[in-house]
Amino acid sequence: MPNATIPSETIRPEEAAHFGALAAEWWNPTGSSAMLHKLNPVRLGFIREAIDLHWGGDIRGLKPLSGKRALDVGCGAGLLCEPLSRLGADVTGVDAAAENIAAATAHAQGSGLPITYSHGELDSLGLGQFDLVTSMEVIEHVADKPAFVAALARHLAPGGLMVLSTPNRTPASRLLLVGAAEALGAVPRGTHHWDDFITPGEFTELLESAGLTTGMMKGISFSPVKGLHLSDDLALNYIFTARHQD
């Protein structure tokens, strides 16, 4: 956590504390982060397609991010950082909770992956720019959404690719992602605050104000047959690309 005497633009201390308290179970696929383990393959499928389309790579290649720098903001204990590293990227993960960074560092070392992790306010870390910037299910937890998006944009290199995902603010997400998910124990209580969810239109406006333009967008839906999957239905959750405006 950043020094409590220094005003923080985007980090909410109570949010960092909530997720930091879950750090020990982050890599347990049946623990409090079980939903993230189910969501991660869906995200990765979208990200891989976006990478191939953006850079025109070989869709059969095992390391499409070779020679590229990747930044995951709000990385938790590294569930996305590790597969990005295996795709060939030089990966940096940033999170608001020191406990998450400790768990992420230990897991990466155990997996033999050279990932750099830091905790604190993104703009205060001096990380430079990256070819790929990702931030999954994070913007709904930050204190200042325009400041957060502007910080993401500053860390995206010219010609780079950004991939973002977040819950939509709809009646369906209030019922299922907050009410039912917490009541059934699918996510820990207090994880989501529906009023902080952001619609695709609102997100697009924030990105445009930061000099970015949105690209491919998909919904992340659930069905008893398919489980979590990409779809054209944005009602619950959506994932999309962005890049610098021409």
UniProtKB/TrEMBL annotation:
Reaction catalysis annotation: a 3-demethylubiquinol + S-adenosyl-L-methionine = a ubiquinol + S-adenosyl-L-homocysteine + H(+); a 3-(all-trans-polyprenyl)benzene-1,2-diol + S-adenosyl-L-methionine = a 2-methoxy-6-(all-trans-polyprenyl)phenol + S-adenosyl-L-homocysteine + H(+)
Keywords assigned: Methyltransferase, S-adenosyl-L-methionine, Transferase, Ubiquinone biosynthesis
GO molecular function: 2-polyprenyl-6-hydroxyphenol methylase activity; 3-demethylubiquinol 3-O-methyltransferase activity; lyase activity; polyprenyldihydroxybenzoate methyltransferase activity
EC number: 2.1.1.222, 2.1.1.64
InterPro entries named in the record: Fumarate_lyase_CS, SAM-dependent_MTases_sf, UbiG_MeTrfase
Keyword Lipoprotein set for record: no
GO BP field: methylation
Pathway(s) the chain acts in: Cofactor biosynthesis; ubiquinone biosynthesis
Binding positions (S-adenosyl-L-methionine): 43, 74, 95, 136
Pfam family, one: Methyltransf_23
Domain of life the protein comes from: Bacteria
Entry-linked CDD domains: AdoMet_MTases
Function: O-methyltransferase that catalyzes the 2 O-methylation steps in the ubiquinone biosynthetic pathway.
HAMAP family: UbiG
Entry's family note: Belongs to the methyltransferase superfamily. UbiG/COQ3 family.
NCBIfam families: UbiG (TIGR01983)
Name the record gives this protein: Ubiquinone biosynthesis O-methyltransferase
